[in-house]
Structure formats: C-alpha cells, structure tokens
Model the fold of this input.
Amino acid sequence: MIFWIASYPKSGNTWLRALLSSYYYTKDGKYDQSFIKKIGQFPEKRHFKNFEYNKDIVTDTSKYWIKAQEKINLDKSLRFFKTHNSFGTLNNNQFTDEKNSIGGIYIIRDPRNVITSLKNHYELNDDQAIEWMMNEKNFIYDVGNFEKDGYSDFQFISSWSMNYKSWKIQSKIPIKIIKYEDLLSETFVVFKDIIKFINKITFNKEKINIDKLKNSVS
Done:
C-alpha cells in the first residue's frame, strides 16, 4: 500500500522525506542522502512503463494513475511516495483510491512564504508568483527532460488553495495535516506525532525509537 507525503510545491516536502527516510530506513536515524531515494515521487515516467500513452499530451498519463499504483502494490509492501498532485479526479481519472493508498501526511505552508520560494525557484516576480499559485489549472513537469520525455511525469497541482482543500476534504483515506511552520519550530514534537500517526495507520506495532527520532531531527 502507498502512504503519501503530499504538499503544494515548495512547502517542505523534501525535508519531511529526509526525516522519514532517516527514521525508517537507517539503523541509527542519522541522515544519509542515499536513503531519501527510497521515498520516490509519484507520478514519474518510470511508473508508466509498458502503458501506452502520448507523452506529448499533457494529461495523458492520468488515465493510468490507478493502474500504475496497482502495479506498484503487487508485492503488497508499504511504500512512501512524495507527491504534489491534487487529490481527486482529472478527466474522470482518480488520482488514487482506498484500494491502493493507506493514508498520508499533508504539509501546508504559509502561502506568503510559498510565494517567496516560488519566486526564487522559478525566477518570478510577485505578481507572477501569486498568479501561479491561484491558477486552478496549474500543473508541473520535468522541464529539463521535456525534449526526451514530454509530459511523462505530469502532476496536476491546481491552485494552492484547491490543492490543500482536495487533500483535506477527501474521505477515502486518513490524512494528517501538519503546518510547515510547526515542524520548523517544534521539529522533535511534531515529527514524533507524525511517526505515531504513520505507525497507527500502517499497523506498525513497534514502539517509537526515541534515539533514532532524536538523530533524525538533529
């Protein structure tokens, strides 16, 4: 089953992936850059291998979102995936469902700070960044690999507001919403709460390893 690490872009998703990979995939909880790769992104081109789609049509991979997740879940293992995709449907295609997903964490960040990050990342001015965040039809893809891969890793993010609401109001899977600012100011406390939630949702009966937890956030 899939456990989602979801957020709007530039909201702390990568940081939380680093914390989780340190806690769940290392022996002592100390950060190792190689382990963050264990928490990949969905969707990506590799998830649609052997599916027939047109890489030049923006939304074409959306028709295989569920089938790709079914393929991922064939071995019945728990996997964490990062995503910026909105929760819901696009062209009548569901992003995910309760058969393929067990739960998720959604990170929400103060939109004023998101604007600043977007400006720096995409080289936008204030008006452009605000317009980018308010665009309900907004999507992202790997610009660097576009010539080769087209829109193969297309993610439908919608607007900042709609992205957040889509995960908050859905009722298919349990979601814990955390504020980036809280994770920043009280990292140990908030991260411990996240681990408790994940272990409960995934039926992990192991007690929280406080030493690993401390190392993960140090």
Notes: The chain has one domain: 2-217. Residues 142 and 153 are 7 Å apart (CA to CA).
